[in-house]
Amino acid sequence: MKKFEIIEHTADFSFRVFGKTVEELFENGASALMELMFNASLKKEIKLQEKEIRINSIDTDTLFIDWLREIHYLAVVEKKITKRIHITKLNDKTINAQIWTTGLNPEDKTIREIKAITYHNIKIIRKNDFMYVDIVCDV
User: Which among 90, 101, 117, 133 is placed 20 to 30 Å from 62, CA to CA?
Assistant: First the structure.
């Protein structure tokens, strides 16, 4: 199953994230964001710094956006690309995760400027054996 795909949006930028489990959906969302912004794969191994992330939110849909916003903040403000993720706790309102980041490298060129991850039409859709969510970004 593919992790994500770019989808049409009239004014902003949008992509759809896929996963077989909620954990995989969250991991694929972070991976998609990094690949779409920097063409930076989570698989690439280099010297990494570990960081713990804890986020509480009102529901799973909002938690997903808050998670992506944290990954986005690290990339844009702290100039750190998330390369690896280990989710230690995930329920309807909370995510705890260990992430490993690295500073921007010359090969991690910015290919798409994303100003913000929006809550626009956020809804995790569950199908028979997978789930997906559409993300709209301000560019």
Answer: 101
- What per-residue string of b and e applies to 117-137 under the rule 16 or more CB within 10 Å gives b? bbeeebebeeeeeebbbbbbb
User: What's the whole-model pTM score?
Assistant: 0.90
Residues of the domain holding 24: 4-138
Q: Total domain count for the chain? A: 1
Over the stretch 83-114, which tens digit does the pLDDT of each residue have? 899 999 999 999 999 999 988 766 666 778 89
- CATH number, residue 91: 3.55.10.10
Cβ within 8 Å of residue 124, ≥6 positions away? 22, 25, 60, 61, 64, 131, 132, 133
